[in-house]
């Protein structure tokens, strides 16, 4: 099993797909990294040699591709900055609402969470 940037890649996937399991690497960046490293994208992760794994790791580190913890920290500090200055996008993040202009009257379930149902109060017992 190959381990790149602290992530164990799934052994039965092709390397171009498996690299997308790393936070910050999508399909385009995956193919770019493999091209720089000189590794065929059709190879399965279990068939990678140690040298090829090291080449891929080296390209990710040397080309300053921001991945995993560093990228998560960068994103969270950017969101915190928006909240601190009190801009519209920061307020939407704080309230847990969509920040890019989507409608919220219907939809927006991803940001707002599951639909909340009002709890009906119990009927009071009537005296006879």
Question: How is the secondary structure organized here?
Answer:
Elements: E1 3-4, E2 7-8, H1 15-18, H2 27-37, H3 50-62, H4 68-85, H5 88-95, H6 109-112
Helix pairs in contact: 2-3, 4-5
SSE order: EEHHHHHH
Going by helix content, strand content and strand pairing, the class is: mainly alpha
> For the largest beta sheet, what order do the strands appear in spatially?
1-2
Characterize the overall form. elongated
In the residues, how many domains can be counted?
2
Euclidean distance between termini CA atoms: 74 Å
CATH architecture of the largest domain: Orthogonal Bundle
Fraction of residues in helix: 40-55%
Low-confidence stretches: none
Mean pLDDT: 90
Main sheet attributes: strand count, strand direction, barrel closure? 2 strands, antiparallel
Strand content: under 5%
Query: What fold name goes in the CATH topology slot of the largest domain?
Result: Helicase, Ruva Protein, domain 3
Number of helices: 6
The Cα radius of gyration reads 23 Å
Question: Regarding CATH, which class of the largest domain?
Answer: Mainly Alpha
Total beta strands: 2
Could you walk me through the main structural features you see in this protein, from its secondary elements to its overall organization?
- The chain is mainly alpha-helical.
- It has two domains: 3-62, Helicase, Ruva Protein, domain 3, CATH 1.10.8; 66-99, 30s ribosomal protein s13, domain 2 (Irregular).
- The protein has helices spanning 15-18, 27-37, 50-62, 68-85, 88-95, 109-112; strands spanning 3-4, 7-8.
- Strand 1 and strand 2 (7-8) form a beta hairpin.
- Helix 2 (27-37) packs across helix 3 and helix 4 packs across helix 5 (88-95).
- The longest helix has 18 residues, at 68-85.
- The termini are far apart.
- The model has no long low-confidence stretch (mean pLDDT 90).
